[in-house]
Design brief:
Largest sheet: 4 strands, parallel
Structural class: alpha/beta
Oligomer: single chain
Number of helices: 3
Helix content: 10-25%
Shape: globular
Number of strands: 9
Strand order of the largest sheet: 4-1-5-9
Order of helices and strands: EEEHEHEEEEHE
Distance between the termini: 27 Å
């Protein structure tokens, strides 16, 4: 199974990242060029931009790969990130995140809890934030 998940958040309170839709379109084209089946590429936009919705996207990935022994899971995120002194505590900034509180981010470390990191499954994560 080869599956790609493209996640883009562009419409944050107080600012918009105008390039995010273009990033998602270009990544989709690149994956198709690399022989990903277009039907295996799922795109999640601003409607999935809250912290709860981002966790739902990760739960979808986890469920899709629950019984898969071999394949490729490609995850791409385009949007804002949040930094902390400890890089693993920083993360993806959701629409409902607080710029002054990195604990409101989806932690980068949480990705390992949801992604199919195991023998036989290639996992690629690209964070453009």
């Amino acid at each position: 199974m080869h599956q790609a998940y493209l996640i883009g958040i562009s419409d944050y309170p107080g600012h918009t990242l105008a390039g995010v839709p273009n990033d998602l379109a270009l990544m989709r084209r690149a994956l198709i060029h690399q022989e990903f089946d277009p039907s295996a590429i799922r795109t999640f936009g601003d409607e999935h931009g809250t912290l709860a919705a981002l966790y739902d996207v990760l739960a979808t990935i986890q469920a899709d790969f629950a019984d898969v022994d071999a394949g490729h899971c490609f995850v791409y995120f385009s949007g804002s990130g949040m930094l902390s002194v400890d890089p693993l505590l920083g993360g993806i900034k959701p629409i409902d995140g607080d710029d002054l509180d990195f604990r409101t981010a989806l932690p980068f470390a949480a990705l390992n809890d949801y992604l199919p990191v195991r023998p036989g499954v290639q996992v690629t994560v690209v964070l453009d934030c």
